[in-house]
Amino acid sequence: MNDKPLRLGTRRSKLAMAQSGQVADAVRRVTGRPVELVEITTYGDVSRAHLAQIGGTGVFVTALRDALLRGEVDFAVHSLKDLPTAQPEELVLAAVPVREDPRDVIVARDGLKLTDLPRGARIGTGSPRRMAQLNAYARGHGLDIETVPIRGNVDTRIGYVRSGELDAVVLAAAGLNRIGRGDDVTDFLSVDTVLPAPGQGALAIECAAGNADLIAALAELDDPFTRAAVTAERSLLAALEAGCSAPVGALADLPPLSAPLEQGDPQADRQIVKEMRLRGVVGTTDGTTLVQLSTTGPVPQTHDRAVALGRGLAAEMLAQGATGLMGERAH
């Protein structure tokens, strides 16, 4: 029996450490081996620039992948939405565990919901995707809001609201849930209002392609539904040639389950699901122009079918004018 500790590479942020700790527990259960966390600082953690300026794509991932390739860690845990869409040949996505709540949420002063915010409310977010959709929603519903670019960790962002500098901030439900801050949420943004980032709420467990034993062990943590969904979402993103800094939202879900899943009902029976719906949106950050489309097809049983679902919707979106909305192209 191999009882040498497995080394799990993780970013140092509170959220990264929390989600890596949860994965470490699961890996201990399936392998029977001890797991130690190896903290790695990434460029995205030390740069103070806004994500849209430093390029977004891969800034939180590259250092972890380099450590994997050098053999300094055995596997790494990423927030899936941070992963570039191109997968390096030397690394394999060994597992995509069951997804957390994919929605965006608002943490607002005085417990307010989005529609209760006062005229001229200042809402902080570092994401052009969130800005585009919030501004479009506000325009369509007679709300008067101003989106303000911010970055920083969860505590920093919520601090802007507590200090009165901002009326609200937008965050991912999954991140708040993972660090035990779900009670701070004052409003859940329906995915009909704001589509999340491709892969939001899901984790990626990555290891070296040559490590067959570890790949086989980690595969026990994989959730085929989540993997199919995020594969479709990421293939849409890749086909739109958009870096993570482009305002693209996407969500693949299982329509009969969406309501019970959003309400957190773990009993939602996955066996009856026959179809997967994929929705995508791209827009200008001021919300004046959005291209939003959806497609529904059989739940993809293979990687290639999940990719095809995303590519097909992206082609329709490009035909509807998404090309001109992309801003910076990924190189």
- End-to-end Cα distance: 46 Å
Round the mean pLDDT to the nearest integer and report it.
Answer: 87
Q: What oligomeric arrangement do these chains adopt?
A: single chain
What Rg do the Cα atoms give? Answer: 19 Å
% residues in beta strands = 15-25%
Residue stretches low in confidence (pLDDT < 50, at least 5 long) are 50-56, 327-331
Q: What order do the SSEs take from the amino end to the carboxyl end, as H and E?
A: EHEHHHEEEEHEHEHEEHHEHEEH
Helix content: 25-40%
Largest sheet: 5 strands, mixed
Sheet with the most strands: spatial strand order:
2-1-3-10-4
Shape: globular
Q: How many DSSP H or I helices?
A: 11
Which structural class do the helices and strands define? alpha/beta
How many strand units?
Answer: 13
Describe this structure as you would to a colleague:
This protein is an alpha/beta fold. 33% of the residues lie in helices and 21% in strands. It has 11 helices and 13 strands. The strands form 3 sheets. It has a 5-stranded mixed beta sheet, sandwiched between helices. Strand 1 (6-10), helix 1 and strand 2 form a beta-alpha-beta unit. Helix 9 packs parallel to helix 11 (303-319). 46% of the residues are buried.
